């Protein structure tokens, strides 16, 4: 009998799942979740950011389960996230209080508080380090102790600013009148996971979709803006990486003061403030330039994504019919990891019925053509 | 951290929200109601819209049937049933008549549905105007204005090009004389079953975050022209090689030895019930 995939589905699925497990463990090593959490910082950060779920241990578990496939790990965490009730909303967190680990500005050489390179691969020669094949724990422990002593000594005679109170670079421009000031907008942001995205979108919806976006997709579209499918060439006004404290009010006192709030932990963030020259028309009709901002932020240390998001934030603020990355539907509908990978992968499902229908209409067209032929 | 999942996967707040969108959809037949579609343990595009409807509606006494392209045993149908069974512990069935909830991808069963049943269709692309207008903002306006000339023009162009309407599955329908809707990619053969259906039909698009509905006894008309009437797929002179059924949607199969085509009921449970003498055509 011909291949008719209508029976035996249950068994086939069970075997496929077993096969997958076999592939994961067949070489006889059990991957420790702790090793993933401690050693795969970049992947953990990317997965947490795309999942909109900040939990290193769960991210490590998802990475283990998905054998290191980020789209699959994000998928697992998003599905888990769907089952979590919202118990509390945090107070507004501000990156002004960020305990900065790294902070640079490409716009100014000398910034108050200084450029802090922190931990970065930017100036690494990308040469494979074969010594990592044979690292020894005691040796590393010695190195770590020495490093920690050294860095605490450096921190003692550090700059005039505490690292959690560094002034912002864009405040310099504001002071000089090169950038417009806006009142702080402390209204409730929209949440696309509670109410679906509608167009025209609000800024908070855009920022949320961008920060949840797949790293590769956000990077590609941000790059397209720079390369030619966009009308921007921004500078990194300030890029910060560090820990931001999160606090919640007492559940019985939701409008409580800051000093009564509870500190529940820190989250690591990357924040990019991109500066873009922008023409404004003065009341007398003459043009002048000032700077506007493109804002990028994401969980963990993922600088490329934060910068690309900053570019796209501004691109979407300035719609342009010729450039798809300036079109909010084009960008916001297509950068979500779970949606894009899900719909692409659904093509693997059987399409017998629809294909039968296609077959019928293609044949019908051929018959009509045949009739018309002399 | 090692929690068990709630009854039917979602927390009750999420279910209520989906049901509210569903009620609105029932109140405005054919109108696509946006909802905050959740990420599910199965992939977007694999029936998450239908699954969210099923999970929001299912109770402990419900009996669920899931079919994928007509088959109860298709891997994706099995997979969805498995998830609902795991999280809700309810009964599942292959029999169309026994089910209270029927989740289906791309087919309406051959056995006529009744008032006590709900049919849930999985929808990949809920917007019938997307082929002619890429922007969601713009298509919403077209619906608001009942501006459907694009949909008619699309069919007209097909007639000009091919001499007939060349839609395959997903031939657009007018619901309750108001909204042009995508029937989901059910074959044209199934479109007439939506008209004055005894059962409530709910359509869920998870990735596109829309729910819409055809309430029982609602007028559903496939778009066509007076001189080029709507026509379903023809299986004239063909019958199922197993149960002999005619007038049903048939799958085309090929004999590997001779390459000859033969046909078989697409609705596998219907075919089986006929073979067992449980239903009569």
Topology:
The complex is a heterodimer of chains A (374) and B (281).
Chain A: H1 9-25, H2 33-39, H3 41-51, H4 56-65, H5 70-81, E1 99-104, H6 137-156, H7 169-175, H8 203-212, H9 215-227, E2 235-248, E3 262-281, E4 287-299, H10 303-317, H11 328-332, H12 337-345, H13 352-372
Antiparallel strand pairs in A: 1-2, 2-3, 3-4
Chain B: H1 12-27, E1 33-34, H2 48-57, E2 63-68, H3 75-88, E3 91-92, E4 101-105, E5 118-122, H4 136-144, H5 149-162, E6 173-175, E7 179-181, H6 191-194, E8 200-205, E9 210-214, E10 220-222, E11 250-254, E12 261-265, H7 268-275
Parallel strand pairs in B: 2-3, 2-4, 4-5, 5-8
Antiparallel strand pairs in B: 1-9, 6-7, 6-10, 8-9, 11-12
Cα separation of the termini of chain A: 41 Å
Computed over alpha carbons, the radius of gyration of chain A is 26 Å
- Largest interface by Cβ-Cβ < 8 Å: A-B, 55 and 70 residues
N-to-C series of helices and strands of chain B: HEHEHEEEHHEEHEEEEEH
- Average pLDDT metric of chain A: 89
Shape field of chain A: globular
Q: Please state the overall shape of chain B, judged from the principal axes of the Cα atoms.
A: globular
- Structural class based on helices, strands and sheet pairing of chain B: alpha/beta
Q: Report the average pLDDT across residues of chain B.
A: 93
> In CATH terms, what is the fold-level topology of the largest domain in chain B?
Rossmann fold
Share of helix among residues of chain A? 40-55%
Short descriptors:
heterodimer; A: 4-stranded antiparallel beta sheet; 4 strands; globular; disordered N terminus; B: 281 residues; Rossmann fold; 2 domains; 7-stranded mixed beta sheet; 3-stranded antiparallel beta sheet; 7 helices
Write up what this structure looks like:
- The complex is a heterodimer of chains A (374) and B (281).
- Chain A is of the alpha+beta class.
- Chain A has helices spanning 9-25, 33-39, 41-51, 56-65, 70-81, 137-156, 169-175, 203-212, 215-227, 303-317, 328-332, 337-345, 352-372; strands at 99-104, 235-248, 262-281, 287-299.
- Chain A folds into 2 domains: 13-81, no CATH class; 95-119 and 160-342, no CATH class.
- In chain A, strand 3 and strand 4 form a beta hairpin.
- In chain A, helix 2 crosses helix 4 (56-65), helix 4 (56-65) crosses helix 5 and helix 8 (203-212) runs antiparallel to helix 10.
- The longest helix of chain A has 21 residues, at 352-372.
- The radius of gyration of chain A is 26 Å and the shape is globular.
- Mean pLDDT of chain A is 89; it is low at 1-6.
- Chain B is of the alpha/beta class.
- The longest helix of chain B has 16 residues, at 12-27.
- The termini of chain B are far apart.
- At the A-B interface, helix 1, helix 5, helix 12 and helix 13 of A face helix 3, helix 4 and strand 11 of B.
């Amino acid at each position: 009998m011909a291949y008719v995939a209508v029976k035996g589905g249950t068994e086939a699925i069970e075997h496929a799942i077993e096969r997958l497990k076999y592939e994961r463990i067949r070489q006889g090593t059990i991957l420790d979740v702790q090793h993933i959490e401690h050693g795969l910082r970049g992947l953990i950060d990317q997965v947490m950011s795309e999942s909109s779920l900040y939990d290193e241990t769960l991210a490590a578990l998802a990475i283990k389960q998905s054998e290191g496939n980020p789209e699959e790990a994000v998928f697992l965490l998003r599905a888990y996230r769907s089952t979590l009730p919202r118990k509390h909303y945090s107070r507004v967190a501000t990156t002004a209080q960020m305990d900065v680990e790294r902070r640079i500005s490409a716009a100014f050489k000398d910034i108050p508080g200084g450029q802090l390179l922190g931990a970065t691969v930017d100036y690494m020669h990308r040469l494979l380090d074969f010594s990592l094949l044979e690292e020894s724990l005691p040796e590393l422990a010695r190195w770590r102790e020495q490093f920690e002593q050294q860095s605490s000594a450096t921190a003692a005679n550090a700059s005039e600013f505490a690292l959690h109170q560094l002034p912002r670079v864009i405040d310099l421009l504001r002071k000089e009148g090169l950038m417009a000031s806006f009142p702080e907008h402390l209204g409730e942001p929209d949440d696309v996971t509670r109410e679906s995205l509608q167009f025209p979108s609000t800024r908070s919806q855009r920022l949320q979709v961008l920060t949840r976006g797949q790293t590769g997709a956000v990077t590609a579209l941000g790059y397209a803006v720079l390369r030619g499918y966009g009308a921007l060439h921004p500078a990194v006004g300030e890029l910060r990486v560090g820990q931001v404290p999160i606090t919640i009010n007492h559940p019985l006192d939701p409008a409580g003061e800051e000093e009564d709030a509870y500190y529940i932990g820190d989250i690591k963030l990357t924040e990019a403030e991109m500066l873009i020259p922008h023409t404004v028309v003065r009341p007398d009709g003459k043009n002048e330039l000032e700077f506007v901002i493109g804002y990028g932020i994401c969980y963990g240390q993922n600088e490329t994504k934060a910068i690309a998001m900053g570019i796209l934030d501004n691109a979407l603020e300035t719609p342009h019919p010729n450039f798809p990355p300036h079109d909010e539907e084009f960008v916001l509908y297509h950068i979500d990891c779970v949606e894009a990978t899900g719909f692409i992968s659904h093509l693997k499902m059987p399409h017998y019925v629809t294909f039968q229908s296609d077959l019928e209409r293609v044949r019908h067209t051929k018959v009509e053509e045949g009739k018309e032929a002399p | 951290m090692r929690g068990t999942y709630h009854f039917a996967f979602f927390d009750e707040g999420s279910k209520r929200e989906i049901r509210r969108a569903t009620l609105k959809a029932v109140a405005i037949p054919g109108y696509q109601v946006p909802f905050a579609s959740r990420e599910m343990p199965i992939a977007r595009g694999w029936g998450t819209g239908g699954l969210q409807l099923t999970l929001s509606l299912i109770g402990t006494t419900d009996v669920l049937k899931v079919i994928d392209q007509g088959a109860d045993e298709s891997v994706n149908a099995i997979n969805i049933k498995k998830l609902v069974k795991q999280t809700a512990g309810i009964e599942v069935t292959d029999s169309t008549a026994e089910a209270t909830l029927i989740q289906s991808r791309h087919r309406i069963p051959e056995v006529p549905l009744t008032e006590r049943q709900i049919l849930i269709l999985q929808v990949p692309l809920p917007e019938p105007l997307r082929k002619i207008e890429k922007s969601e903002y713009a298509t919403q306006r077209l619906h608001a204005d009942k501006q459907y000339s694009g949909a008619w023009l699309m069919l007209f162009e097909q007639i000009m090009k091919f001499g007939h309407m060349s839609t395959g599955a997903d031939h657009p329908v007018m619901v309750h004389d108001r909204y042009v809707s995508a029937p989901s990619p059910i074959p044209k053969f199934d479109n007439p079953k939506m008209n004055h259906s005894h059962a409530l039909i709910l359509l869920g698009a998870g990735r596109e975050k829309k729910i819409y509905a055809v309430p029982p006894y609602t007028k559903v008309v496939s778009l066509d022209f007076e001189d080029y009437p709507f026509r379903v797929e023809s299986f004239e002179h063909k019958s199922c090689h197993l149960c002999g059924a005619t007038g049903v949607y048939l799958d085309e199969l090929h004999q590997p030895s001779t390459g000859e085509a033969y046909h078989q009921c697409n609705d596998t449970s219907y075919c089986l019930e006929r073979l067992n003498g449980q239903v009569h055509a």
